[in-house]
Write the structure tokens for this entry.
Amino acid sequence: MSGRGLGTRPLPPACSRAAARGGIIAAAGLKARKYGVAGLVSARNRTAYMGSFLGDILSYSLFVFVFSRVWTAALADRIDIEGYSLSQLIWYFIAAEIPAFGFGRFFWTLAQDMKSGQVAYLASRPFSFVGYHFAQGMGKAAVDASVLAAVGAGLGLLLAGPLPISSPAHAAAALASILIAGSMQFLLQFAIAMTAFWIEDNSAFFWIYQKLVLIVGTLLPIEFLPEAARRIAAWTPFPSMSYAPARIVSSWPGGGAALSLIASQLAWLAAAVLLCQAAYRLGRSRLTVNGG
Amino acid sequence: MHRATRRFGSPRAYLRFLSVSFVVNIQSVLEYRANFLLQVFGMMLNNAAFALFWGMLIGKVGAVGGYGFDDVMLIWALVSTSFGLAHVVFGNVRSLGQIIQRGELDLYLLQPKDVMLNVLSSRTLVSAWGDFAYGFLVLALLPGFDPGRLALFCALAFTGALVFAATLAAAESLCFFIGDSSGIAGAVTEFLLSFSLYPETIFGQGMRWVFYTILPSGFIAFVPLSALNGLGWPAAGIAACAALAYSAASYGLFRLGLRRYESGNQMGSRV
Amino acid sequence: MPAIVVDNLSKSFRTKVRPGGFASSLKSLVAPEYRSVEAVRDVGFEVNEGEIVAFLGPNGAGKSTTIKMLTGILRPSSGSASVLGLDPARRRTELARSIGAVFGQRSQLWFHLPPSDSFRLLGAVYEIEGRVLKARSAELVERFGIASYMDVPVRKLSLGERVRCEIAASLLHDPKVLFLDEPTIGLDLVVRREVRALLSDLASRDGATVFITSHDVGDIERVCKRAIIIHHGVVVVDESMKELRHRALSRKYIGVKYAKPVDLDLPGLPPVKRTETAASYVVDTRERRLEEVLRALVGRGELEDLTVEDESLEDIISRIYQSKPGGEL
């Protein structure tokens, strides 16, 4: 893990020293702190670039506004579609766009890192490659998403009416769902970025992924898809990425149903983690084969 | 020397310039074939996703704002081809601000051609070719395709392209006056596209005046759609008038900015 | 017949005073302060058809500003300029047909295209008839020796190759006046020599009026017949190259280093700096033949190093300032 390829013997990393000194818990704490700091530093950097973020906020607001008009027109001569009222549809969209927008652009930075050779550089550092990037990426995205959520809430109050969050439990479930969805976004985009080890220009894969996320649950609730498509979608991770949090936020399906949604999210999250680790390990072996 | 008696700056000369620029740029684009195909793929993917969206939504609720599926597809075709054409002929339209700020206009000032036309047509955007072709593809697949309709579509794409180019160029020309205007220009592009691609009728009357003034999506999408849906060539005439008006305004703004540039009193002289 | 007439030409720029510190930043938002920079002050000269003029000056002297005013890119604050009888600011497009320009830091060639395509495009820009364009292209390609890379994208060419293509392209439309702004900037010695050769060739063959700016005197010396030196926006010298050379370019700085200590004093020429084995001398070539000095130095002992340098333009100018008017330096 440490001192790879340099020939000199470095000092043992802090966490193994801690382990030697005071036990596993201390070591775990230090390890966690490593990733925690990475996330915090990244979040701080992000706030420094609020200027460019303004563009994102503008795009998001525009999108929300336009879709509120689309839904208004769609419900011109009916009360609801598949049980969703106008207000619920608007809140649905606001919530669905948070994992899509706020946690949706990791791929490009990851792809940049791949291309620039950062991978090889970081691969020799004493921490989990995936974990480090996760902390870094999520730190940034957390700030983005929080701001978007605030903006979204404001827009929703203006365009759709009162906040659909009915209880603390509801709020907690919504938050959990969004965070899991965001994490899944990261992990899957990470896995796609890993294909750079085999394919030079892999942006096409990301585009396909992005569009699927868009169609399956972001632009439209799953219930709007034709029967056959709905059944196929159930076997994909996409419903867990935008539909689940958006549904929970906008039209509370009841405690039990919410929990089962979150549970399936967690299952897919676990699968995504495994996929990521596997992709990384495969990629790294290829890296040493090619010499970086 | 017969050079002195020849008419300089004739429309024919400009046409020659544009066509040479065209041919030469295409050749360089062909060099980057793979990249081009990738961009086209991305564009197709994006358009397909939204086509699916509209298909499913209209399938569920019927027409939205009075727009059926064919209407929505037609708008996408019009906007796509107009946008594509604008960036094929005036490929530098979105880099104009940058060119101004870096002082690269000097080179164009040295040449005996209209500066704005020269700058804008010096480049063609690879991906724009895909957008341009997409519209025709969709038009061919929609019912009612015949030579008359095709001709009308071409005319509308032409006027739409002018409106697009004029508006974007105007936003970029703000660089003459306020320094870095890339934020505004980016926003204008995004807003213009967004409003063009959605049924205009879903927006309240209070908003729609915007689509015929500062963000002319009305002349890019709604009026051409009306033309293709029965109002025919008279409606195209309205679009043409609008295109001329916007082009003139944009050109005027650029010339004003150019005067400023020539006096050299920009944000820190670029001596 | 004057090709270029400049009379009392001036240009000043208004720039915002950039504030330092928070309080003054706030103030500058509400009541911005402007500072006037006089880049060019009352410049006047005449250039006849067919003349080859060097327009010299240190960085920031106002050369680029002047040339921009002559080509119509910049409008003067006061005074007048006339190129081929036209006011560059008012009739720029018309003038553009008959002038060519090579700007050292900017390229008129399309970066991603091969020079052959740029030639075609420029042919359309300058409305050169098809047959004429073809003949002229062939002629220039041969003359500049660029045939082997006419079809290579410009971005792949070396700097020297690019400059050749650049100059060739500027001559396509047979301009009556050619402006070159720092054509050799950033080029290494070998390429610079090539370009100088090209420029002299230009001068003798085409009969065009050539106006070259540079801050390197060596470039221009062999090419131009007349020199105008500008400093702090004001014309300081305007005379033939021959006179200038005689008046101000006659100094050479020689540095020597020997393997062992030698007698470093030359008859009538003491070194200005010395150590045991090394020395530097200032030789006025009007009084003393350079060849003799070098011969004498070489003969003194085993030479380890020998350098011969021109005086820098800045030094020349400062000496000009200090000299008595019309007198020898």
About this structure: The CA atoms of residues 46 and 52 of chain A lie 10 Å apart. The mean pLDDT of chain A is 78.
